[in-house]
Every structure is written in structure tokens, then in C-alpha cells.
Design a protein that fits this description.
four-stranded antiparallel β-sheet, Immunoglobulin-like, 2 helices, single chain, mainly beta
């Protein structure tokens, strides 16, 4: 009986796992973009018990594993063979010497570095949508939205596939661009068509008299307005669904501005509207 317990101890202490080894074969990239996928086949010898996890790790751009980054993992292996479908982190920098290795959790073991290197030739695109003449217009007018990225293809939320589109309805419009290396990036813009933007000369003066800043903001908003244009003004803030989340009488202090605390609002896009002399002056407001 004593020998039986000794055998059990040896079995579960990990001593039987001493001869394990992991070998990474050549890996295959589906894209050289940061954020792209990599197929990582590997083989192993020895016994890896149920619950063990094989994890693929990416080196730095010199091929060193001083601070490896996990790319994906698997528990499913058959007959000494396995494969991990990894993802190159979107934050990965441009480089030609990245390598991949695999580590196991039980027993703890580390493979060789991949024979071939991983190439990242395109980092995540920085896309942006610009609006002309602006994000706000009078009903019946047209706003042109343009994707700044020069890409192989464009896919707008409207179904359009050109670099620029014309819109006449309020809403959030997004575009996904795809470059020659199949790298993608998505950006969006919110536009508003409102009668308050149908202004004449005097209304333009009112528009120029209003300042709402900083924008974007995450806490304090300053409202500046020349009181000579109206002493009985008030403002409200609504979200993109039209729900009013704030309404106050305009009280400009000695510094020529009013302080508004918006720190309790969720991050997103809102609309600030100042009501003065029967007019409504609107601004798009971004809360971070």
C-alpha cells in the first residue's frame, strides 16, 4: 500500500511530465495588418493533462520574448498535434522580425520560436469623416461627408461605396475603409438638420455670440454669450434620441460665462440648444 501511494504522488507531482516538449511549425499569416489573423500549427510530445492550455505569444519587433503578448490559446489537441488561431494585436507596430512561441500551463513548458517571422506592414488606420459645410444644416440643405482615408474600397452605413456621400437627414453615418492590404478602419459622424440653422444676418450675429467649450469635455462645460442679445435666455441639452438631460436658465457671471457640470452624463454625443429671442442656437456636444 505504501508503494501505491508513492506511485500516486509521483504521478500527480508532475514528474511524469518532465519529458514534455512543444515545437512550433511554420506559421501562416492571413494578413500583414495589425489586427490580422495568424494560423499557428504545433506539435508536442509527452503528456499534457486535461485542463492544460496552450497559449501562443508574440515577441517584440526584434524577435525577443522579454515582454511577450498573448495572441490566442487552445485546450484542444489530438495525437500530438494542435493549432492556434491567433490575432496580431491591433496596437502592434510596424516590423519584419516578429516571432511566435507557445507556452503550456500544465506542466509549464515553452516551445522554440517560430522558424519564420511575422511581418506587420500596416498598422491600424486612423480614419476620420469630415463634413462640409459642417455637422449642422437647415432642413432641405445637403451635407457632404468624406472619408479622409485613401482606400481601395469604401462601405458606408447607407450602402454607398464612394469616398464622399451627400446626406439630407439627421443621423449617425459610418464608413469602413479597406486598403490594398485588406486593413480596415471604421469612423463615423453625427449630423443634424434643424430649422434653427435657417438663419439670416441677425441670426448669424447671434450664432457668433455663443461659445460652448471645451468640446469634447468630460466634466465642466463653459457657456459664453453676449447678454446684449437677450437677457431672458435658457438652454437645454438633449441626447441623440431627443431626450432632454439638462435644462437651465442662462446666468452669465462676471467673467462672461456660465459653468455647467456635465460629469454625470454618459459618454456620447449630445446637442446643446440655447433659446433666446425666439431663436434656437444649437451646438453638437461630445461628452468623453
Amino acid at each position: 500500500m505504501k508503494n501505491f501511494y508513492i506511485a500516486l504522488f509521483i504521478l500527480f507531482s508532475g514528474s511524469t511530465f518532465a519529458q514534455t516538449s512543444i515545437n512550433v511549425d511554420s506559421v501562416f499569416q492571413t494578413s500583414t495588418c495589425a489586427g490580422g489573423n495568424v494560423i499557428i500549427p504545433f506539435t508536442y510530445t509527452g503528456t499534457f493533462p486535461f485542463g492544460n492550455v496552450f497559449t501562443a505569444q508574440l515577441s517584440d519587433f526584434f524577435g525577443n520574448f522579454g515582454s511577450p503578448v498573448n495572441m490566442g490559446s487552445t485546450m484542444f489537441v489530438v495525437g500530438g498535434n494542435g493549432v492556434i488561431f491567433g490575432t496580431i494585436p491591433a496596437s502592434t507596430n510596424f516590423g519584419f522580425l516578429y516571432r511566435i512561441r507557445i507556452v503550456s500551463s500544465n506542466p509549464i513548458d515553452t516551445s522554440n520560436s517560430s522558424a519564420n517571422t511575422i511581418i506587420v506592414t500596416q498598422v491600424a488606420q486612423l480614419n476620420q469623416v469630415v463634413s462640409n459645410p459642417g455637422d449642422s444644416a437647415c432642413p432641405g440643405d445637403t451635407i457632404t461627408l468624406t472619408a479622409l482615408n485613401f482606400a481601395n474600397s469604401y462601405s458606408w452605413s447607407t450602402g454607398d461605396t464612394s469616398q464622399s456621400i451627400n446626406v439630407t437627414q439627421s443621423g449617425i453615418y459610418s464608413v469602413t475603409t479597406t486598403d490594398a492590404l485588406t486593413c480596415q478602419s471604421t469612423a463615423s459622424d453625427t449630423v443634424l438638420f434643424d430649422p434653427s440653422f435657417c438663419v439670416g444676418i441677425h441670426e448669424n450675429e447671434l450664432e457668433a455670440a455663443l461659445e460652448v467649450y471645451p468640446n469634447p469635455t468630460s466634466g465642466i462645460l463653459f457657456v459664453s454669450f453676449e447678454s446684449s442679445y437677450g437677457n431672458d435666455a435658457y438652454f437645454d441639452i438633449t441626447d441623440v434620441t431627443g431626450k432632454q438631460v439638462c435644462s437651465e436658465k442662462l446666468r452669465i457671471d462676471g467673467s462672461g460665462r456660465q459653468t455647467v457640470n456635465v460629469s454625470d452624463l454618459n459618454a456620447g454625443i449630445y446637442f446643446f440648444a440655447l433659446h433666446v429671442n425666439g431663436k434656437v442656437l444649437s451646438r453638437k456636444l461630445i461628452i468623453e
